[in-house]
Amino acid sequence: MAVGRFVFLSKDEMDLVHSQSLECLREIGVHIPSHPILKTLKDAGASVDESKMVARIPECMVADALRTSPRSFKMCARDPKNDLTVPVSGPPYAATTGLGVYIRDMDTGAKRPSTRKDIADFIRLADALEGVDFVWTTLTATEVNQASHSLHELWTAMQNTTKHVNGVSILSAEDAKAQVELASLIAGDKDALRKRPLFSVICCSIAPLSYETGIVEGMVELSKAGIPVMSMSMSLSGGSAPVTMAGTICNANTENLASLVITQSSAPGAPHIYCSSSAPINMRTGSINYMTVEQCLIAASLGQMARRYSLPAMVGDWGVNDTDEPGIPHSLTEIMGLALSTMGNSDLVSGIGGLDAVKGASFDQAVIESKLWESFRQFMRGYTVSKETIALDVVKKVGHGNTFISHPHTAKHFKSELIFKDPSLAKWEVNRSTAMVPEAKEIARRLLAEHRPPAVDKDIVSMGDEVIARFEKTSR
């Protein structure tokens, strides 16, 4: 299958990144402030400095982790027709943004702290949008006990979509266990959830080469339950990673290999997704800067490394707006760079509906980016290269200097081979424009008014609410 892909590293350069990552793990190691996980790694062969809480990981442990991690698996959904198998052969699956702390009101334009109702509405809109394949929990439930906000976000999202849910927050091992318990209510029980993981979770390392206690212990609990873990590195060039592209790429790759060793040492065979949301920092402000040339080069490189390891990957981003106003505010160069990141061997991408460098979200922006993604993903559609599609027999029949337009071969194949863009979307693709915003608002309003995914049984909802209430009592 022929698919359009963007590559950056040569084979020799990939080999060098790999060897330098192994040297980094072996000589520098990773900081893991968790005695249980350090013990697990030590028992598996790591050299552990208990006083500094640093594990130095030998190459054999990396090889073992790569050997036991599954090459392919399903990210399942409440409706099986929405199940996603990774890796993909064509365009990546796209998700919403996350984890914003405000929503932009469609009517007034005002920004306000996001709530569970906003999460429910945003996820329900995403459930209706064709350009959204799975959902991140997207927004923070700011009105609840913050010790349990991730549980409220996951539970709200699962009730408002039939698509796969990707959790964006994990706070502790107990939080992870409670998330598994919630999803088990939807799946039927924990065994059913293991067979059909209805959610996955992003577990971030802290660049450079470190972990937060709750997140890394939660990552292990999720792996033991069979929940796919996305080991996201946010290596920021010039901030939390060397400013050079090579240094950033190697740091993100090293963190991903370390996370893989942790999950596979704790739960061999656990589903694991190589993940990155790495980019340079803005050298004027110190904030992350996704709208750069370098972001897509980092994404393409890490996608190549994931393919080298035969691991599913989420390394690209799709979100064309990092301001706080809906629309397409950036130039062709910036949008092209971001678009190329989705073509860099990524199986999953995210960002639909985000504003303000992921600090916020917007219903109308979700519609805009879903529509744009429907068009752009066609560039990564698979094409069959075979004797039939090369069609020398047809060439022979048509003859020199003649036309193929009336030949049956053309009628048979043109709809599957050629992309026919919707002309009504032309104004949605104008750079530095807000011309599409009014229509996007109307689409969002209509879908929010009309679309209702099948409801979760009320008794199950009550049991989930009880799980969260119980967690809140014990976490005080």
Describe this structure in words.
- By secondary structure, this protein is of the alpha/beta class.
- The chain folds into two domains: 67-380, Trimethylamine methyltransferase-like (TIM Barrel, Alpha-Beta Barrel), CATH 3.20.20; 387-417, no CATH class.
- Helix content is 44%, strand content 13%.
- It has a six-stranded parallel β-sheet. A four-stranded mixed β-sheet has the order 8-7-20-19. Strands 1-3-2 form a three-stranded antiparallel β-sheet.
- The N and C termini lie far apart (54 Å).
- The mean pLDDT is 95.
In short, what is this structure?
By secondary structure, this protein is of the alpha/beta class. The chain has 17 helices and 20 strands.
The largest β sheet comes out as: 6 strands, parallel
Mean pLDDT over the residues: 95
Estimated share of beta-strand residues: 5-15%
Q: How much helix, percentage-wise, in residues?
A: 40-55%
Strand order of the largest sheet: 9-10-11-12-14-16
- Name the shape in a single word: globular
Number of strands: 20
Query: What is the number of helices?
Result: 17
Please give the domain count.
2
The CATH architecture of the largest domain would be Alpha-Beta Barrel
